[in-house]
Specification:
Blueprint (H helix, E strand, L loop, with lengths): L2 H8 L3 H9 L6 E2 L5 E2 L3 H14 L4 H7 L3 E3 L5 E3 L5 H35 L2
Antiparallel strand pairs: 1-2, 3-4
Protein name: HTH-type transcriptional regulator HmrR
Keywords: DNA-binding, Repressor, Transcription, Transcription regulation
């Protein structure tokens, strides 16, 4: 299938599909005329990429883990036990938890400033 077909099948723009290719997440076959030819499996790959991005993973980590996920019989994404996968997921979870903690600290500081501003107009 061509890039337009994949875009329609996944709801992802052609531009974003090209970006996924640049990041090494998709590897379409290049035809002699330069057109990209995608396989049916790329529809699932794009779904997996979107789910992993929604989980907060950067594309560099997704590139390493994408081959470790597949769909179960119900069409849900599941992870296989690939070497290093748990380490990557734990690191990313820690990174996200640290970010949440920093944001909560910032939020508390802003709340203090707002409270102070309201008490001393």
């Amino acid at each position: 299938m061509r890039i337009g077909d994949l875009a329609r099948a996944t709801g992802v723009s052609k531009r974003l599909l090209r970006y996924y290719e640049e990041q090494g997440l998709l590897r379409p076959v290049r035809l002699p005329n330069g057109y990209r030819e995608y396989a049916e499996a790329d529809v699932a790959a794009v779904r997996h990429i979107r789910a992993l991005l929604a989980a907060g993973l950067p594309t560099a980590v997704i590139a390493r883990l994408l081959s470790c996920v597949h769909d179960d019989e119900g069409g849900r994404m599941v992870a296989a036990a690939c070497p290093g996968m748990l380490g990557h997921l734990r690191r990313e979870r820690r990174r996200i938890a640290d970010t949440i903690e920093r944001l909560q600290t910032s939020q508390r500081a802003l709340d203090t400033l707002l409270t102070s501003a309201l008490q001393h107009p």
